[in-house]
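Action item from last meeting closed. Structure (428 res):
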């Protein structure tokens, strides 16, 4: 097989910037992602658990897509699970290198010494999954101590999720004073807050400004909607027109970090719902600080007060992804690439070997190439002309290691007196 080197103008590297759209819908403590429900498979039927080929609940991403359409509960290597498509799992063996997975929440050297014997297998589990999460913060500053007090995390009663974002909120204050922890709009240290966390796997490097939308539905109709039309992180209630709080800022969004912080506390619904706190035990009217109730926040249908099932929530935005794309131009020049390794390239029933012995092997130099040219006239054979059909283009690195194969949907005719070029693209 001949090798041809790419020329200096045959390789181009570009950056492909895209804005994939993501939508989440929350209803009755269930999350749905991009209108995708349960997808059944061979092993994950409607009666199986979780009943989804991705081995996760709806609305969650299976990181690395380990364990697709498998059987839970049969992950360990037991004879009964062999051949039943069991779950794969990560493991390490305890040995003298003293390397192990974390086996307890408060892992320490004593656990490693006492919980396992040398040679034992230390296992974890797949799949790893993620989705958006809501955290309701009753009071960010939960103690009377100063924020600068170096109190241990175990005894400090401040909300650490909020305080880990406090400096970032101050940084975003250059875009809008609504981001500032303390301003004339309010004091976030003492307000009730609704923190929505969006993992970066859903938006890439940044949430695109101007594309964020949060909707509050009640009995199937939109009770209120937030958007960021100013593209400065302010979430403004844009509808319905004339509704309570219309035109007001109900929260802010951190585009680069994927956090939404809602502070709007005006009434949105005419009925009360069990949306207060993490357990939903106390009834209150619908407010933006209760948006997303049931989104991995501990609120369940069984613990929520009446009319909770009538509320649902929508979140949509566009992310930002940058993909490095390499474009390669492979040329089959005139007079080159005119031989095929396909056995049908040569005429049938010819001697392949001209001479062979214990010291030499010589192929037949007089073998004829099959004439593949066709004529539109019956009983007439076109004169011979060398031509081949190219079906694949392979790419190698400088050490001749195969790094890519481009397979054409239909073999392309390459005649000897013509040039032919192929444009290949690869993500890197």
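Sequence:
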């Amino acid at each position: 097989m001949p090798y041809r080197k790419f020329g200096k103008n045959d390789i181009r590297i570009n950056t492909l910037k895209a804005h994939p759209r993501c939508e989440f819908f929350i209803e009755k403590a269930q999350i749905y992602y991009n209108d995708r429900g349960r997808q059944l498979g061979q092993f994950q039927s409607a009666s199986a658990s979780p009943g989804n080929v991705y081995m996760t609940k709806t609305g969650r991403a299976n990181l690395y897509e380990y364990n697709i359409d498998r059987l839970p509960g049969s992950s360990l290597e037991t004879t009964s699970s062999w051949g039943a498509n069991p779950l794969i799992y990560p493991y390490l063996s305890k040995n003298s290198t003293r390397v192990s997975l974390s086996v307890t929440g408060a892992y320490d050297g004593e656990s490693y010494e006492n919980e396992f014997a040398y040679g034992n297998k230390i296992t974890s589990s797949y799949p790893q999954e993620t989705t958006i999460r809501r955290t309701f913060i009753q009071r960010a500053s939960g103690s009377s101590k100063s924020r600068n007090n170096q109190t241990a995390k175990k005894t400090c009663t401040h909300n650490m999720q909020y305080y880990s974002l406090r400096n970032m909120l101050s940084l975003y204050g250059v875009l809008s004073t609504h981001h500032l922890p303390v301003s004339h709009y309010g004091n976030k240290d003492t307000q009730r807050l609704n923190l929505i966390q969006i993992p970066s796997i859903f938006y890439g490097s940044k949430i695109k400004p101007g594309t964020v939308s949060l909707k509050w539905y009640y009995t199937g109709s939109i009770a209120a909607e937030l958007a960021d039309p100013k593209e400065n992180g302010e979430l403004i209630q844009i509808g319905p027109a004339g509704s309570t709080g219309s035109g007001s800022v109900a929260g802010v969004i951190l585009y680069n970090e994927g956090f939404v912080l809602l502070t709007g506390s005006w009434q949105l619904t005419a009925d009360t719902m069990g949306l207060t706190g993490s357990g939903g035990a106390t009834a209150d009217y619908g407010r933006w600080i209760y948006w997303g109730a049931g989104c991995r926040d501990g609120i369940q249908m069984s613990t929520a007060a009446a009319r909770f099932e009538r509320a649902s929530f929508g979140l949509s935005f566009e992310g930002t992804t940058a993909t490095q794309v390499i474009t390669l131009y492979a040329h089959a020049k005139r007079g080159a690439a005119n031989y095929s390794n396909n056995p049908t390239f040569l005429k049938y029933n010819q001697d392949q070997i001209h001479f062979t012995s214990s010291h030499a092997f010589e192929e037949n130099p007089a073998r004829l190439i099959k004439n593949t040219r066709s004529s539109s006239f019956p009983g007439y054979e076109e004169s011979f002309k060398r031509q081949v059909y190219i079906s694949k283009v392979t790419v190698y690195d400088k050490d001749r290691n195969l790094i890519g194969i481009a397979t054409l949907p239909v073999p392309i005719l390459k005649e000897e007196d013509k040039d032919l070029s192929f444009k290949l693209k690869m993500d890197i």
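Note appended to the action item: DSSP finds two helices and 25 strands in the chain.
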